[in-house]
Amino acid sequence: MKKIVLLRHGQSTWNKENKFTGWMNVDLSEQGVEEAKKAGKLLKEANFHFDKAYTSYLKRAIKTLNVTLDVMDQDWIPVEKSWRLNEKHYGALQGLNKSETAVKYGDEQVHIWRRSYDIAPAALEKNDDRSPFIDPRYQDVPSDYLPLTESLKETIERIMPYWECEIYPALKKCDQILVAAHGNSLRGIIKHLKGISDEAISELNLPTAVPYVFEFDDDLKLTKDYFLGDPEEIKKLMESVANQGKSK
Ligand SMILES: O=C(O)[C@@H](CO)OP(=O)(O)O
């Protein structure tokens, strides 16, 4: 049986401070490193042996992948990085506190910015300090492809060429693949894999560093999906992600 495990990065320093992050390159917090270790332990106990891993260009996902594979003693496997797996670009919201933004603009507006399918936050200026146009990481990416903000729809449109041409076809040769990425980039992949509607996807909130396993038959059709870990604890973690955008 073929398996792809989707893993959101562990808690980042900006998750801890409850700030919109998007393409900002923040590190894992201490708790985030511990969460990545726990993910590695869970995957090891469940006897996973990955053939290949994929991650984004952002430190929090790369470090989560490295820590997880290290715990599993599988840090020798081939890893491919792509900017296409980056988090949804949060435009001018990047760096703002989510609760404070909800106090200013209302819970409903922040929910629209965070979880609507096709509405993007206000865009950054091209020469803003936070712009990918001035970040050497993206110097080889054609400028037409670089976002200054994104809706989930646009995030999915940028991920799909990589998913369809690289990750999913790799399942033909590989039995087990690990993808370490971000809350919204993974929500986009999950929407595609499970055929979730534009409306229903707004209710999915991914907890940090909880392995989400997708099983495929020999024809590469999805047969089953499940999280590794305690279902009650995972439910609470998902609720707490949903509540991050509330004024409280
Ligand atoms: O800020 C972000 O980049 C994302 C993930 O941390 O947040 P949200 O859950 O609000 O989409």
TrEMBL record:
<comment type="function">
    <text>Catalyzes the interconversion of 2-phosphoglycerate and 3-phosphoglycerate.</text>
</comment>
<dbReference type="InterPro" id="IPR005952">
    <property type="entry name" value="Phosphogly_mut1"/>
</dbReference>
<feature type="active site" description="Proton donor/acceptor">
    <location>
        <position position="87"/>
    </location>
</feature>
<dbReference type="Pfam" id="PF00300">
    <property type="entry name" value="His_Phos_1"/>
</dbReference>
<feature type="binding site">
    <location>
        <begin position="87"/>
        <end position="90"/>
    </location>
    <ligand>
        <name>substrate</name>
    </ligand>
</feature>
<dbReference type="InterPro" id="IPR029033">
    <property type="entry name" value="His_PPase_superfam"/>
</dbReference>
<feature type="binding site">
    <location>
        <begin position="21"/>
        <end position="22"/>
    </location>
    <ligand>
        <name>substrate</name>
    </ligand>
</feature>
<dbReference type="InterPro" id="IPR001345">
    <property type="entry name" value="PG/BPGM_mutase_AS"/>
</dbReference>
<comment type="similarity">
    <text>Belongs to the phosphoglycerate mutase family. BPG-dependent PGAM subfamily.</text>
</comment>
<keyword id="KW-0413">Isomerase</keyword>
<dbReference type="GO" id="GO:0006094">
    <property type="term" value="P:gluconeogenesis"/>
</dbReference>
<feature type="binding site">
    <location>
        <begin position="183"/>
        <end position="184"/>
    </location>
    <ligand>
        <name>substrate</name>
    </ligand>
</feature>
<dbReference type="InterPro" id="IPR013078">
    <property type="entry name" value="His_Pase_superF_clade-1"/>
</dbReference>
<feature type="binding site">
    <location>
        <begin position="114"/>
        <end position="115"/>
    </location>
    <ligand>
        <name>substrate</name>
    </ligand>
</feature>
<dbReference type="GO" id="GO:0006096">
    <property type="term" value="P:glycolytic process"/>
</dbReference>
<feature type="active site" description="Tele-phosphohistidine intermediate">
    <location>
        <position position="9"/>
    </location>
</feature>
<dbReference type="GO" id="GO:0004619">
    <property type="term" value="F:phosphoglycerate mutase activity"/>
</dbReference>
<feature type="binding site">
    <location>
        <position position="98"/>
    </location>
    <ligand>
        <name>substrate</name>
    </ligand>
</feature>
<protein>
    <recommendedName>
        <fullName>2,3-bisphosphoglycerate-dependent phosphoglycerate mutase</fullName>
        <ecNumber>5.4.2.11</ecNumber>
    </recommendedName>
</protein>
<comment type="pathway">
    <text>Carbohydrate degradation; glycolysis; pyruvate from D-glyceraldehyde 3-phosphate: step 3/5.</text>
</comment>
<keyword id="KW-0324">Glycolysis</keyword>
<keyword id="KW-0312">Gluconeogenesis</keyword>
<feature type="binding site">
    <location>
        <position position="60"/>
    </location>
    <ligand>
        <name>substrate</name>
    </ligand>
</feature>
<feature type="site" description="Transition state stabilizer">
    <location>
        <position position="182"/>
    </location>
</feature>
<feature type="binding site">
    <location>
        <begin position="8"/>
        <end position="15"/>
    </location>
    <ligand>
        <name>substrate</name>
    </ligand>
</feature>
